[in-house]
Design goal:
VWA domain-containing protein; Immunoglobulin-like; five-stranded mixed sheet; six-stranded mixed sheet; 6 helices; mainly beta; Rossmann fold; 4 domains; about 15% helix
């Protein structure tokens, strides 16, 4: 279903915030992975266990980290069944060996429970003692199974003043299982990533690597809706008037912030929950180092009801819908009936090409048609035609000949073919035409013949050529 975007509003709110102008430190803060080793990681996806997929993706992802990146590793559920305290620090936050991380993950054998809250408490204790700030990445294929609430743990740690950013990657979770995890990620100033397969997990890990605790806090928020509900959308920021990428984020059905140094940007917002909906481009968005700004976008759409007729009767036509930049954003075929196209709100051109109609007026472009959110706009176009029948005859019978029909004023060939033993008949626009006929040698007749005829709307013309 295709819907066009309505920019509901772009609101600039001014909330005093600390200027975020610092660059990432030369020595990055630690990244601590909390790794799911519960028994459910033996489950299959794409012909492999979740354990194999997660191990491979994690090992590959950390190869892109800086050489001096500290990487800690905590695992849960890998030693005892039914033990809600089975959480172990496999590698301390002082570790800088990527190979050690890959080896440790590879050797983990999933077995037990999913103590998310207790795992988070263990990591918070490490940060409490080290007094370092860190990025925490929790990878889980299940929800809490030990009566804890990870969101409460994260909120308490933030209130205490522990400096961290928490990202949570839900790997193969079902709808309705993510509420507590989304709450925890939001409370931890991070994101919740929904990874449905190996590709999704890899994409999430790539994004996590760029959204560390060292990155300045976001200063521009984006919130996207469709049909009155928040939706997940991908946001890409470009330096204004260019294709130079300046940053990006993903909304995950909430307000998501991206850090954009004070300047003017163009934002592309692409909905992820309906891939056929065209993205919206917001131009000239000005950010501030001192204040937060917001863009609130609605993807509510409307419809075109396209009707193609010929002499007032329903007619089959192809339809192509173009946006203001001339890009095709929709289309189909009417089959002689009214055809509806659901689109983002905006202004478009509708191009119709009549099928089984000859002449120089078989294509029409209806410009400046407006789609309004929640409404249906009628787009009607009527073609006109008469009928033209060309019958080559020889010895009192139909004979095979080539037929070429040329519109006189433009000298454009608009139809023809071979007559075989039945002649050539077509629907054709009103106008004056030159008909050229050449009998095929196999008929025993030869020579070229021509005639000029005028076709009028709704009238039938039959032109016979006798050899």
């Amino acid at each position: 279903m295709k819907q066009l975007v309505t920019i509901f509003c772009i609101l600039l709110f001014t909330f005093q915030s600390e200027a975020q102008t610092k660059q990432a430190p030369e020595v990055p803060s630690p990244i601590i992975f909390i790794y799911d080793a519960s028994g459910s990681m033996w489950g299959q996806m794409q012909g492999k266990t979740k354990m194999e997929i997660a191990s491979t993706v994690l090992s590959n992802s950390i190869n892109d980290f800086a050489e001096n990146q500290k990487i800690g590793l905590v695992a849960y559920g890998h030693r005892k069944k039914g033990d809600c305290r089975d959480v172990e620090t496999l590698l301390p936050i002082s570790n800088t060996s990527k190979s050690e991380v890959a080896l440790a993950v590879k050797n983990i054998k999933p077995l037990g429970m999913t103590p998310l809250a207790y795992s988070a408490e263990m990591v918070m204790e490490q940060l409490r003692k080290s007094k370092e700030k860190a990025t925490i990445v929790l990878i889980t294929d299940g929800i809490e199974s030990c009566d804890g609430d990870i969101c409460d743990v994260v909120k308490a740690a933030k209130k205490e003043g522990i400096d961290f950013k928490l990202h949570i990657v839900g790997f193969g979770l079902k709808a309705g299982e993510t509420k507590q995890l989304e709450c925890a990620a939001k409370a931890g100033d991070g994101n919740y990533y929904d990874a449905a397969d190996a590709s999704g997990l890899s994409e999430a890990m790539t994004e996590v690597a760029s959204e560390t605790v060292d990155k300045p806090k976001g200063n521009h928020g984006v919130y996207a809706t469709m049909n009155g509900k928040a939706i997940d959308a991908l946001v890409t920021a470009y330096k204004a008037g260019t294709k130079n990428k300046a940053g990006g984020t993903r909304t995950y059905r909430d307000t998501s912030f991206v850090y954009l140094p004070q300047e003017t940007y163009d934002l592309e917002i692409r909905p992820l929950e309906n891939s056929r909906v065209e993205p919206i481009i917001l131009k000239g968005i000005r950010t501030s180092n001192d204040n937060k700004t917001y863009s609130i976008i609605s993807f509510d759409g409307g419809k075109f009801a396209v009707t193609s007729t010929n002499n007032g009767e329903g007619w089959d036509s192809t339809v192509k819908i173009l946006d203001a930049d001339g890009k095709t954003v929709g289309g189909g075929r009417t089959y002689g009936r009214t055809k509806e196209f659901e689109l983002n709100a905006g202004t478009y051109s509708v191009v119709l090409q009549a099928i089984k109609l000859n002449g120089i007026h078989t294509k029409a472009k209806v410009e400046n048609q407006v789609v309004t959110a929640g409404q249906t706009t009628a787009v009607d176009y009527n073609f006109e035609s008469g009928t033209l029948e060309v019958v080559p005859m020889g010895g009192g019978k139909n004979i095979d000949a080539t037929v070429n029909i040329i519109e006189v004023n433009s000298r454009t060939s608009v139809g023809g073919g071979r007559s075989y033993d039945r002649g050539v008949k077509m629907n054709i626009n009103p106008g004056t035409y030159e008909i050229k006929v050449r009998a095929l040698k196999k008929t025993g007749f030869s020579g070229d013949k021509s005639a000029t005829v005028t076709v009028k709307k709704g009238e039938a013309i039959k032109q016979t050529f006798n050899y």
